[in-house]
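Input chain follows. Return structure tokens only.
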Amino acid sequence: MNTRRLRDAVLAVGIGFGLGSAAIAANDLRDHAPDALLGEVNFFTYCRDTHGQSASAIKRDNDADGWRCMVLEPLFEVTPIDRDDACTEQYEEPAVARSDDPSDPFSWRCYSR
């Protein structure tokens, strides 16, 4: 009789462990599910909306990280672009920017969070 209780206890622990592990794995998959593609990033619009009509997007370097805002008035200034903010403003929802190819300045896309 003790053997049967021991076997049932071990079986119950094993099932509980398995179900707990499955729940953790399912939660992990949900947290890392791919985000929905919203579209391309419009750096030109972002620079104008953020810095005014005298601003424009420029490629400082010919790679994905080369984009900057160039502001002509009141002072000539080159500023970095917050790519996530550009996506959030453009698509009016929380978004992140990702580049598919670090060597391609036009590879930026926005994804919903």
